[in-house]
Design brief:
about 120 residues; mainly alpha; 3 strands; about 10% strand
Length: about 120
């Protein structure tokens, strides 16, 4: 079986490879991979998207948006918080979550914008 998406000969650009390897080795790729792993869960990406649309949501609101129990929503929100993607504040008996910063909001928005483009090209 022939694959036309694989080089047919080996040709390595040593300068590029060296430069990129040095740059990659200085990055915390494992931490970034954990962020994408967390966002690869359908419920968590729904939660992150909801938080990118609204500045702040109560755990109860999040549960209703994603169709889960508050315990399940809270579990997912806690994971997003532990990875530095979300933050929370407590107001009396309520807990409100928001995205950690503008970079996270942009990451979510860009991913959805890209998906819309992919769907429009199909």
């Amino acid at each position: 079986m022939k694959h036309d998406d694989v080089c047919e000969v080996t040709c390595v650009d040593d300068l590029k490879v060296k430069r990129v390897k040095e740059t990659v080795s200085k990055q915390n790729t494992l931490a970034v991979a954990q962020i994408f792993k967390a966002l690869s869960d359908d419920t968590r990406i729904k939660i992150a998207y909801a938080l990118s649309v609204e500045d702040e949501l109560c755990v109860c609101d999040v549960a209703n948006i994603v169709g889960s129990t508050t315990a399940t929503a809270s579990h997912h929100l806690r994971l997003l918080r532990n990875l530095g993607l979300a933050k929370y504040r407590k107001e009396g008996k309520l807990v409100f979550y928001s995205l950690d910063d503008e970079h996270v909001r942009q990451l979510i928005q860009i991913a959805f914008e890209h998906q819309r483009e992919v769907e429009n090209h199909e």
